[in-house]
């Protein structure tokens, strides 16, 4: 029977020859992830499952990244709960501050997310790992606790949607962020609810891994269960030296069934800006140009990778951040930070007037390190612009790619990168 | 019988429970800040037994289980929506917060209406307008999960019967 890549991965992990959309299955997990916000709740629930040890201490990843380095006393207590648990359980992939990064930048970098894997994470952006051809989805703390205890989770097999991006003639500065914002603008924030989003076509093949991570990262913003891109040469090159176990290769059958197929030409997709207070409010940058802002954030699990920082530096080189703007940069991991230092990216950013931070989710979710006051506006490369997301309930967030964010930091208003390049 | 608190479409988890309160996870703490950014007096005025009504894609956004925990700890007995975002849907069932999908009831309930629900049969009765509605039924597995009161009692029950 023909299946999609998502269906094949689910079938393999459920020990079945085939699965069909709508089917409820119990599947084995390759990796179970939690952070300092969701982890402590999961650990508390784990204690109720009547077992003393996690199902496999090498298949659990715990990353203090949301309110870490500890932002206040309560956050310090939460991080400590997770740290104590990691030590007691001898969790192999616990990443202490100093080694840690933003979880969805860190785990692929560490080779912990591989093609064909089935991964759950108590964080909605767990869908990021679809970029390497894994089935990865976000769950809450109780599901996570059950995963920790049993190594299994139940799933409803999702219907798949296929999005074919034709052509490789991208408009200048357009990247994965623009493709996914454009798509969410078309679909709406529930347009892919409960479904798998499969991205394919020449346009996707042409994208770097960093851009693919950005796209799969935001599948949840269309309501999807997972986003996925079939592994190719770029995937294999990325995994070279990272993967420490073999992995199966899965590809959608030619006659696999999709509930919807939509086609786009990448040449038609302009730079995008999503207006407050929803990622679906995507408009072309021409419409957004000139909106005055107070802060710019470059980083996060969406756009905190090396290529993102490189693009920002390209725009900012030799320029100065507007005197009324705070530009905050959050490299995704320590490795990304060091690479960016070696390439001179960090120096360029600081020279321009950026504040560069150790990795943290920080301001993306209004945690710390860049909270907005009443009435303030930010351009951000993050993934959500809900009411109050980055601070005061009357603040606003505009979502964009790193080039637009950097250009906007120079001008003090939403700006096309062309205007400062 | 409970009073209806009505909210719109795409109510996200940042509105249900803003991230600035995620540095503590006790139900009382979370309940005190529930729907704070929706610009209502909900957290102050909600009474045990009240119900919550939302539009499509209720609970979209983050995976924070703190959101359904906050709603439950407020004393809300059921959330009725046109549809639920998938992580919230799982989380609500897992922690034993009853949810019902029923677009007709959402359309037919105004803020402050007195509403009675029967979770076993899925019937929703608006006592203010004297109208009745039938929620969509859950698949059998989820009915078992709901009857058990959440994922942990469900798993425990299965172990005992194994």
Question: Topology, pairings included?
Answer:
The complex is a heterodimer of chains A (421) and B (162).
Chain A: H1 5-14, E1 24-28, E2 31-35, H2 39-46, E3 60-63, H3 73-88, E4 93-94, H4 103-109, E5 118-121, E6 135-138, H5 141-150, E7 152-156, E8 160-166, H6 176-187, E9 196-200, H7 202-206, H8 209-217, E10 226-228, H9 233-239, E11 260-265, E12 272-274, E13 282-284, H10 285-288, E14 295-299, H11 300-303, H12 306-316, E15 326-330, H13 334-342, H14 345-352, E16 355-356, E17 377-380, E18 396-399, H15 402-411
Parallel strand pairs in A: 2-3, 2-5, 3-4, 5-6, 8-9, 8-11, 9-10, 14-15, 14-17, 15-16, 17-18
Antiparallel strand pairs in A: 1-7, 12-13
Chain B: E1 2-6, H1 13-16, H2 27-31, H3 42-45, E2 51-54, H4 66-73, E3 79-81, H5 86-95, E4 99-101, H6 103-108, E5 114-118, E6 123-126, E7 131-134, H7 140-148, H8 151-161
Helix pairs in contact in B: 7-8
CATH superfamily of the largest domain in chain A: Aconitase, domain 3
Please identify the structural class of chain A as seen in this structure.
Answer: alpha/beta
Model regions low in confidence, pLDDT < 50 over at least 5 residues of chain B: none
Number of strands of chain A: 18
Low-confidence stretches of chain A: none
Which fold name fills CATH's third level, the topology of the largest domain in chain A?
A: Aconitase, domain 3
Strand percentage of chain B: 15-25%
User: Rg of chain B from C-alpha positions?
Assistant: 15 Å
Identify the quaternary structure here.
heterodimer
Across the major sheet of chain B, the strand order is: 4-3-2-1-5-6-7
CATH architecture of the largest domain in chain A: 2-Layer Sandwich
Gross morphology of chain A is: globular
Please estimate the helix content of chain A.
Answer: 25-40%
N- to C-terminal distance of chain A: 52 Å
- Overall average residue pLDDT of chain B: 95
């Amino acid at each position: 029977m023909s299946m999609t890549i998502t269906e094949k991965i689910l079938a393999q992990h459920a020990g079945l020859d085939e699965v069909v959309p709508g089917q409820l299955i119990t599947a084995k997990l390759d990796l179970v992830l939690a952070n300092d916000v969701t982890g402590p709740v999961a650990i508390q629930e784990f204690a109720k499952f009547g077992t003393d040890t996690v199902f496999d201490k090498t298949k659990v990843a715990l990353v203090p990244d949301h309110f870490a380095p500890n932002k206040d006393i309560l956050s310090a207590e939460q991080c400590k709960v997770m740290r104590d648990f990691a030590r007691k359980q001898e969790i192999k992939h616990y990443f202490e501050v100093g080694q840690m990064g933003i979880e969805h930048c860190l785990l692929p970098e560490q080779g912990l997310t591989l093609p064909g894997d089935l991964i759950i994470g108590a964080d909605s952006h767990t869908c990021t790992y679809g970029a390497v051809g894994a089935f990865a989805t976000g769950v809450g703390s109780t599901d996570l606790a059950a995963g920790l205890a049993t190594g299994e989770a139940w799933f409803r097999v999702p219907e798949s949607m296929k999005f074919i991006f034709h052509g490789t003639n991208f408009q200048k500065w357009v990247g994965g962020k623009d493709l996914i914002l454009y798509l969410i603008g078309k679909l709406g924030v529930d347009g892919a609810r409960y479904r798998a989003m499969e991205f394919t076509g020449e346009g996707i093949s042409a994208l770097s891994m960093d851009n693919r991570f950005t796209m799969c990262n935001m599948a949840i913003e269309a309501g999807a269960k997972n986003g996925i891109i079939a592994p190719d040469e770029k995937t294999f090159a990325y995994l070279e030296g990272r993967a420490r176990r073999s992995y199966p290769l899965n590809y959608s059958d030619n006659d696999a069934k999709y509930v919807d197929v939509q086609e786009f030409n990448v040449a038609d997709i302009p730079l995008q800006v999503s207006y407050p207070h929803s990622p679906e409010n995507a408009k072309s940058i021409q419409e957004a140009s000139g909106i005055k802002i107070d802060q710019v954030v470059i980083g996060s699990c969406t756009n905190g990778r090396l290529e993102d920082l490189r693009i920002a530096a390209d725009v900012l080189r030799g320029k100065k951040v507007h005197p009324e703007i705070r530009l905050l940069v959050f490299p995704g991991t320590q490795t990304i930070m060091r690479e960016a230092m070696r390439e001179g990216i960090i120096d360029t950013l600081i020279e321009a007037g950026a504040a560069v931070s150790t990795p943290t989710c920080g301001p993306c979710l209004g945690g710390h390190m860049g909270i907005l006051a009443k009435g303030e506006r930010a351009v951000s490369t993050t993934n959500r612009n809900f009411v109050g997301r980055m601070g005061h309930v009357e603040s606003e967030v505009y979502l964009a790619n790193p080039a637009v964010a950097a250009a906007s930091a120079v001008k003090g208003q939403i700006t096309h990168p062309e205007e400062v390049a | 019988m409970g009073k209806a608190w009505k909210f719109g479409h795409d109510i996200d988890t940042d509105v249900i429970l803003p991230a600035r309160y995620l540095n503590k996870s006790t139900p009382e703490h979370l309940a005190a800040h529930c729907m704070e950014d929706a610009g209502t007096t909900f957290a102050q005025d909600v009474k045990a037994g009240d119900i919550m009504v939302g539009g499509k894609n209720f609970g979209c956004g983050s995976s924070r289980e703190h959101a359904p925990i906050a709603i439950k700890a407020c004393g809300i007995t059921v959330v009725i929506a046109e549809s639920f975002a998938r992580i919230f849907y799982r989380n609500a069932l897992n922690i034993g917060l009853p949810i019902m999908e029923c677009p007709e009831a959402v359309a037919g309930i105004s803020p402050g209406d007195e509403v009675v629900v029967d979770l076993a049969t899925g019937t929703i009765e608006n006592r203010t307008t004297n109208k009745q509605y039938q929620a969509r039924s859950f698949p059998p597995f989820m009915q078992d999960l709901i009857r058990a009161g959440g994922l942990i009692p469900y798993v425990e029950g299965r172990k005992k019967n194994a």
